Amino acid sequence: MPDSTSVSSFLSDPVELVKFIGGIVGIIGTLTAIVVVFFTKFLPWWRTRRDRRSLEKRFGAELYLKAVIERSTQYYIDPFCQVLDPAGAEEPRNLAFNPKDNLFKVVNVALHHPTEYRYLILLADSGMGKTSFLLNYYARHLRQRRKKFDLALVPLGIPDADARIKEIANKNNTVLFLDALDEDTLAIVDHVARLRDILALTRDFSRVLITCRTQFFPKEEEIPSETGIVKIGPKAAGEKAQYVFHKLYLSPFTDEQVQAYLKRRYPFAQRRRRRLAQDMVQKIPNLSVRPMLLSHIDDLVRANREIKYSFELYEDMVEAWLVREEGIVPGLKKEPLRQFSERLAVDLYVNRKRRGAERIPRAELAELAKSWNIPLTDWQVSGRSLLNRDAVGNFKFAHRSIMEYLFVKRFTAGEKECCGLEWTDQMKKFLLEMIQDHLASNKPVPFDASVADLSGFVRKLRSKALAKLSQNEVILMLKQQDFYDVNKYKIGKGLAHHYESYHNNEVVMDYATGLMWQQAGSENYLIYKNAHEYVHKLNQQRFAGYNDWRLPTLEEAMSLMEPKKHGELYLDRVFDHKQRWIWTSDHHSEGAAWVVLFRWLLPPPPC
Question: What is the mean pLDDT of residues 178-204?
């Protein structure tokens, strides 16, 4: 211990005092940095690693592949949710959460609520994180020391989902998570019947949460509430026994959530890449809508090209994957692998009912691989692969939307197996975006979209002729469809068309309605009787390769009416402007058919 003289001299020397204080501050700063790194870096990393191992141990490769678990837990950001109560909901006020409420907190409240919250359905578009939420919720449940209930998670896209549900013990005290109703092969055939079967199968569970794509149900009101299970509590006379499906919708990421993800994905040492990623997110709003796409931000940053449509994001992801796989396996070439992947996507979708899932056994895959010269025996799919393999060797795509994108790419290449099938909503979106991209670039659409299933994504117009259509009914139709008419409905905005000419400009395809039109019509003036003979002749000659030509209904014909003149006519210039009017198959009285005039100075033609 220094004597008092040494201490006084030390305190009186400013240089020594500054050094001493600086040393203390340095030590405190170092300790603070260590604490900050521990709580902000090491602890989250350790928790994520622990969660991943817990999930892998619990599910193995039979239910969720290792790569899926890794992507779902790494850099995970808690999502928000919102509730959109449909008209006629039983008690809309019962579950009114703020659009920025944390989904974990909302589900916790719902799972601990009285019996009226027994059934929940979590809805979101493809790639928004439904499966990731369930896996992360399950992992956090495993962390809890005192559990108020057991939790079970079963993906509905596997063949033995029902058997696994039946095997679950202690159902009365178990909350059941059912993942991806839209991937259930039986639900794809008949979602109403399948849902009833599921509800009967789960009647003994404490709570049930089902995830599904928003667009899986044809209409908002078809998101079902009737289950056929007895309703607990009083009910009004004549009311059917039912539970209520309380609907939660995953909200798109906010700007703050996107930034939080990028900070986790790119720490301070990678701040240059973080800036590039931030610029990419600013250019591509779709990235924040779908966290699945955000997880592939690295591939998109490297591509660094102008992107307008979501299909272009998948294009870049697939391209980056093909380049990686080509570099891993000697002799594996990118183009054959691309063709193989597209063909595999079609095979998985076409044969999903036979296999009971969108997976393919290794033996069947080997036959496809052999035909495309893919060395499957040497091919090791990595954690960043778009293809996954389960414990028994079945292959599937890492995300269903990747399979859907490749399916559509195969369709655009002329694959006939893609035709005559009921497409998913995501497939339809991809195809419509590809069409819009070609039209916006003034390029011809290099495939026949008329044979694709675009139901639900085109304006459905009445195709059956009416023997008597009154003036009042016509005016009502114009208002309902918002069609322009210079006399009857001047405020009509008309239809936003997506026209494309085919067969040397003989026909015009309107992707907005799914209707194909003759571009020029008849050369001569025709009365109504001769118009039918003209159509009959077109079918005999198989005009433009088709034999199902007919006169349009008034509703279909009025869809062509433009709210502004193009030259002399209220008709787009993609059509021959010698065609100033057209007959329709609808009649307003016996012997008098409705006609559409694209130039209103003309007198109506006689029948």
Answer: 87
